[in-house]
């Protein structure tokens, strides 16, 4: 009756009301979906973090130790050989118990300590590299989860990526480290030998040729 | 005098119809204004929600950034540097064994004169001390990389947290923008509905009928207003001038007689005349 007096179009009114209600319902649905999406992203990031939680300090210490455990025995082996070479080199020149031996032994020890430090460094660097790779992988997964339609799928794939990262690494054998231990010993030995021979030659020369001895004394102003 | 009565009634009906139409137009105008104001309110609410969300997101992001900065502050870095240096130095020192005659003395030196032996041991001791000092410097040098890597991770984690916040905020803002557009899209329908309220079928009827009554000369028989209207219009059209469409009797002069010609009766007849038309059916 109201429409008869005060306005018609009741059907259109309902259409507008229904459209408004539909829009409200749509908004509620979209809002709920967005809340769920953000929840899924948060859950996925949490799952990724849980998957990567195994990569803690112990893991990286293990990586470092794995390398040092691999490299140190090789270093010891090379050090043993270098020490033997030094022993023979010094002994050949009769310098085993000399100040030259003391210097050479100190040099060898310095090289040895530096190589041990180098191996520790290499182990720590490998651990740092692993730390960087793992963090990068984790960040990449988180970034994917933030933008993916299916964050749970990304989180599910994190396990496989983590397993790959946790696989043992292969290391290269050490190169020869103590190459200069005996360097110069042969030359020193030769020089010593040459010096000895020169002295002998001089003695022989002066004993067998008095004129030469005289000439030498005249030359130096000394009395024969 | 007898002709004045239908003219007066007609004019009253026209006036009533006009008033109804005016009221309907005002209602429509009000409804239209309300729909626009309602939409403005909704848009304001959405903007407020978007602004609030933005402020919360910025606050959270700033908080995370502040945490990152605190973790990477010079003081924190100095502490981290000391810690990293200590760890490295400890690792180096642990790797360098102390003087051990079995390791450091060469075979054949066991029988060396004590003077020579002392000399060798002193040289080795000096070398080991120098190596340890070097290890401390090496630790300080390489710890810088450790600390930088840690700071890099902290910054990356901070950026990641901010990225999550920003991503969620962007999604929410996009959603609200979508809501604003969706809400706006309903407004034309509401305005159309409001404009339709400007139509008053009864007002139109009364106005038309009143105008006809006031402006036409016709015979109004008691209780047959509808027929009279037909007659009047027929008469006006000139198809059958002077005859009643119902009774076929000549019309005019005007005569009103009998108890049935009342306002209520007129109302009822007018209503029945227009009932069933598509416009009148809405909302009846």
Can you walk me through this structure?
- The complex is a heterodimer of chains A (224) and B (284).
- Chain A has 224 residues and is mainly α.
- Helix content of chain A is 82%, strand content 0%.
- Chain A contains seven helices and no strands.
- In chain A, α3 runs antiparallel to α4.
- The longest helix of chain A has 49 residues, at 99-147.
- The radius of gyration of chain A is 43 Å and the shape is rod-shaped.
- Chain A starts with a helix and ends with a helix.
- Residues 6-11 and 212-224 of chain A have low confidence and may be disordered.
- With 284 residues, chain B is mainly α.
- Chain B has helices at 4-71, 74-95, 101-104, 114-196, 201-215, 225-237, 263-274, 278-281.
List keywords for this structure.
heterodimer, A: 224 residues, mainly alpha, 2 domains, 7 helices, B: 284 residues, 8 helices, disordered C terminus
Summarize the structure.
The complex is a heterodimer of chains A (224) and B (284). Chain A has 224 residues and is mainly alpha-helical.
Using the alpha-carbon principal axes, give the shape of chain B.
rod-shaped
**Biggest sheet of chain B, open or closed, and with what strands and sense?**
none
The arrangement of helices and strands of chain B along the chain is HHHHHHHH
Counting structural domains of chain A, the number is 2
Count the beta strands of chain B. 0
SSE topology:
The complex is a heterodimer of chains A (about 220) and B (about 280).
Chain A: H1 2-6, H2 10-52, H3 57-92, H4 99-147, H5 151-165, H6 185-208, H7 210-220
Helix pairs in contact in A: 2-4, 2-5, 3-4, 4-5
Chain B: H1 4-71, H2 74-95, H3 101-104, H4 114-196, H5 201-215, H6 225-237, H7 263-274, H8 278-281
């Amino acid at each position: 009756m109201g429409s008869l007096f005060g306005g018609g179009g009741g059907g259109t009114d309902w259409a507008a009301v229904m459209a408004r209600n539909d829009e409200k319902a749509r908004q509620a649905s979209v809002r709920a979906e967005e809340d769920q999406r953000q929840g899924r992203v948060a859950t996925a990031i949490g799952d990724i973090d849980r998957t990567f939680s195994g990569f803690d300090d112990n893991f990286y210490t293990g990586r470092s130790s794995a390398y040092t455990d691999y490299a140190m025995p090789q270093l010891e082996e090379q050090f043993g050989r270098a020490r033997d070479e030094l022993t023979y080199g010094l002994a050949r020149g009769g310098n085993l118990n000399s100040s030259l031996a003391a210097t050479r032994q100190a040099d060898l020890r310095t090289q040895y300590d530096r190589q041990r430090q180098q191996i520790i460094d290499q182990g720590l660097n490998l651990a740092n590299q692993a730390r960087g790779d793992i963090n990068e992988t984790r960040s990449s997964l988180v970034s994917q989860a933030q933008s993916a339609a299916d964050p749970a799928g990304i989180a599910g794939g994190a396990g496989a990526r983590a397993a790959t990262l946790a696989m043992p690494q292969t290391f290269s054998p050490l190169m020869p480290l103590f190459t200069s231990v005996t360097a110069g010993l042969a030359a020193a030995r030769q020089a010593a030998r040459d010096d000895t021979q020169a002295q002998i030659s001089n003695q022989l020369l002066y004993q067998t040729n008095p004129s030469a001895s005289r000439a030498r004394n005249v030359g130096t102003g000394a009395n024969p | 005098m007898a002709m004045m009565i239908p003219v007066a009634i007609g004019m009253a009906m026209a006036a009533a119809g006009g008033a109804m139409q005016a009221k309907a137009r005002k209602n429509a105008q009000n409804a239209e204004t309300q729909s626009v104001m309602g939409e403005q309110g909704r848009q304001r609410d959405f903007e407020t929600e978007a602004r609030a969300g933005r402020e919360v997101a910025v606050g959270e992001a700033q908080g995370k950034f502040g945490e990152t900065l605190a973790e990477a502050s010079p003081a924190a870095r100095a502490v981290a540097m000391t810690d990293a240096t200590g760890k490295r130095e400890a690792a180096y020192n642990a790797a360098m064994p102390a003087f051990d005659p079995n390791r450091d003395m060469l075979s054949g030196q066991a029988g060396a004169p004590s003077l020579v032996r002392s000399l060798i041991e002193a040289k080795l001791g000096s070398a080991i001390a120098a190596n340890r000092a070097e290890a401390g410097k090496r630790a300080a040098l390489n710890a810088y990389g450790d600390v930088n890597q840690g700071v890099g991770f902290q910054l990356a984690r901070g950026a990641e947290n901010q990225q999550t916040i920003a991503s969620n905020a962007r999604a929410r803002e996009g959603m609200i923008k979508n809501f604003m557009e969706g809400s706006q899209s309903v407004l034309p329908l509401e305005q159309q509905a409001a404009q339709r309220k400007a139509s008053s079928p009864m007002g139109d009827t009364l106005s038309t009928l009143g105008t006809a009554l006031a402006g036409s000369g016709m015979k109004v028989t008691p209780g047959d207003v509808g027929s009279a209207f037909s007659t009047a219009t027929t008469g006006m059209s000139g198809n059958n001038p002077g005859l009643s469409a119902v009774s076929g009797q000549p019309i005019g002069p005007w005569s009103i007689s009998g108890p049935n010609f009342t306002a209520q009766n007129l109302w009822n007849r007018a209503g029945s005349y227009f009932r069933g038309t598509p416009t009148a059916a809405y909302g009846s």
